[in-house]
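Notes for week 9. Today we move from apo structures to complexes. The key idea is that a small molecule is not decoration. When we ask for a structure prediction with fe (ii) ion present, the ligand SMILES becomes part of the input, just like the chain. The input block below holds both the sequence and the ligand string. Read it once before you look at the output, and try to guess where the molecule might sit.
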Amino acid sequence: MKSGLGLHKIFNYISRKLSLIIFNQRLPLGYIMFNTIYKKYIVNKKIEDDEILKFHNSGVVKLNINLKNEIEEYKDKLFIKEEDKEDTSKRVKFSLNNQDKKDFVKKVKKKLTPLIYKLENYFNCDVFISDILPFRIYHIEDQNNLEKEAYANHFHQDGYLMIYNKIFINLMDINDEDGPLQIIPIENKKKFFKSFKYKDRNNYNVFGDQNLIYKNSGTIGECCLFSSPQVFHRAGVPKTYRDLIQIILVTIPKKYSAGVYIKDEVELFKGNEKNIMKISKPYSLISILKLLIIFFQRKSNKS
Ligand SMILES: [Fe+2]
């Protein structure tokens, strides 16, 4: 078992290195294959919607959805649990009481429903809200030291298939000083690799061309959708702190959605990483291929 895991790690390491050199990506080669096939043959290419078109081309889009009213209604109700206050990772979770969670999620879902429909049409598949995580990140010292990483503040891609996507909702006005999320849109990736001399997550020139970076600054309630497995991104470091809500969307046919289709609003706050990983972070080529078949079937059943 142990040697199997060791082999898997070595294989993954080589696969990632090759992906960096050949494709300017930092993903296992199987994931790159999956994403390429999905984007070419499964997504609905007849995109008439500007938001979805931007998402398709750049991997990131600021949404025409604003949750300012909902956030302002619940912002004072968010609190940090005693046990989470001891977290030294410089990132702490916010909690809400159960009734507030229920009410808040219902309102968020209502606002996001039109987007979910558009994404289902784009992915040719069902899309589920699988996790809601409100959190705060704090300032860290020596943010340019690539040997130390506090909270995903080095450029990386999330190691998932493109069926895993994120929405960031601003819980406060976020300007440059508040460390907005930084994203390299897909069209800037080649230039980014050159300018930042990107070799790996802990090996690149942090002083590359800053104009290649999209900074997700904005006002309270603004929402940004991004394909974290497709775009390089990093958490910006705030001068004091930055508050936001991260929502994870998982694309999977409904009949395989156990664990990521969560009906109970309160459950959505529980941290669903394990179930999300089971679906969107497969560990073998066979599982990747099986998933592709499932998505092709879903597409053909629909049309
Ligand atoms: Fe990330």
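Residues 231 and 275 are 23 Å apart (CA to CA).
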